[in-house]
Amino acid sequence: MSIQVQGVQQSFHGHTILEDLNLTLEPNKIYGLLGRNGAGKSTLLNIISNRIRPTHGTVTLDGESMHDNDHTLGKIYLMSEVNMYPERSRVKNLFKTTRLLYGGFNDAYAAKLVHAFGLDINARFGKLSTGYRSIFKLIIALCVPVDYVFLDEPVLGLDANHRELFYQELIETYSDQPRTFVISTHLIEEIANLIEHVFVLNDHHIIVNGEVPDILAKSYTISGPQTDVEAYTANLNIVGEDHLGGITAHYVYGALENDRPIPDTVKVDHLDLQKLFVILTNTKEEATAYVN
Amino acid sequence: MQFNFNSTEPIYLQVADQIEEAIFTQTFVEGEQIPSTTEISKEFHINPATVLKGMNILVDANLIEKRRGVGMFVIAGAQARIVEKRRDQFYTDYVKKLVSEAKKLHITQAELAKLIERGFSAS
Amino acid sequence: MSTKLRVTTRYLLMNQLKALGEAFLAVIAIFIIIPFILAVVSGNLSDFSLPNTIANFSWGFLIGAFIFLYDSLTYDNFKLFIQNGLSRKTFWAAKIVTTAIIAVIGELFAAFYRYAISAPIWGISAHAALMKTPYSLYGNFFGSNVWINILVSLLFTIIFFIATGITGMAIGGGLALLSKWGQRIVIVVVPVVAIFLIGFVGNSSADKQVHYDFTWLANLLKFLIGYPQHEPAIAGSFSPAVPMITMLIGGAIMAAIAYGFNQLLKVKN
Known about the structure:
A: alpha/beta, Rossmann fold, 6-stranded mixed beta sheet, 34% helix, B: mainly alpha, 2 domains, 5 helices, ATP hydrolysis activity (chain A), P-loop_NTPase (chain A), ATP-binding (chain A), AAA+_ATPase (chain A), nucleotide-binding (chain A)
């Protein structure tokens, strides 16, 4: 029981977008898919949902191919930024179409969400604002009878109140009826405690793939006077550094040396997910821009 | 209840700490139900599994118990157990730190004792 | 028929019937109401004959054009279906089933209109009405029993509509793979080249000086439309069998091409 992405590679016109990518999505978990603009998050989601075909590699659900297969495709839903619905159709008719094509739809929950978000179901999809397009697609995503829901930028254009409401409803429906959610977003802080497992996509590869507490447990800030910090972090996996006045901070991703004494002048803290993400995905230019 | 998300402590431990604190201050009264996993999860955008992990620490510590189909309840005597535990930890959590800071500030033992007396009389 | 194919077909069918209804209303508006208003405005009401206008509708052309155009629309439906967890294969199959159903419904409607409405208004027999259609080339093939000839004409036209629709699917499927720019270029360039080629063939056949020999092409075309091999070629006695088989084979080839293009469909940007 899982979605397996195996050896997926994608290139467009000689440009590599994804390279030898492998990952597993297990049932009933909430995942975060993080990556900078252009890192290939949407491409990966489009490959999983068979909207595009990878140059190499396979995607399977419970061992069955995802390619051109109603049975597996009908068990997933991808909410994406690209608008897939006919512009002239009315919201209420699109709900009906979804019910017909997916073979089910939680009408009662949809009605509740429509009311809570203030969505006009008589409006035509093309006339909705960016925020309400997101809300419309979110409502469908939460009401279709699938095992895997992929949310690509789910809160695009949503104000703070609607974002709050969305996260609450996400947890509510997840608690009532557990299924897998994969959330791809730039608003890392908002989902940092919501996701159990995180993937970070950078430079065509997955550079982080693990349970969030485990990842954060091995992410450290070591700060203090430069010489002491450098002495302590020698040979450790230093992924970034900052300097402020006489204080140096080294960011370490990986295990510390347990038998190495921590000098009194040096402070060891953990990083939060957003900070870790920024450090791991900074370009060289961005990283040096901090160092003054 | 509130969570300090800048804290470097894992979230499930923070959940356990916050519920324990609420029992200690009698916000959650013995014998009564505490908020459900989903309620806490929804309020603070924390994964339900994480909240449950935090609650299980308190179940193991005999502070709360699960009643099937109803929810989590504060066990009788939980507050007393928390007080006992905190007394045990008082030396490491507060006294050691206090003395260490006092030393850095060149406060003598006698001066510190006086300050403590002053603290008691002020409150 | 799998559940997914059934629901996809139902969706396409409902949408197409609705669009076909709208097209019918548009045609009625354009060919009855506007001429009528013009006649009233210009004071030539006596020139306007409602029964004649009604009788002269030839729905077959509208249905053929509609099936072709609707089947060529590909990308928007593909997006909606892949969003709803339906495979390319199912989309393709549902389109073919829908085309067949619309072809049958459309032709039955057109035939009913021709023989039950137009013919009485014109005051002509069913046979005469049949001979006013493009099928007149084959209209007497089955002898004097007009109803058998009409029945075969229905089958013939239905096959023609289906083959036309599937050709539309293949063309639309190919266009859907191109960028907007590519689509524009193809839509402009292909007709120009086709006209040029037709002109070229026509000229070289007429001009015996040039030694391109296109008689084989002429013979092939004659064969394909069912031109009699031995008997004198009298319109009405051509054989509908060869063109029907040709359309079936052509339709199958187009269906295969459409399937190939359909497999290559992907969501853009």
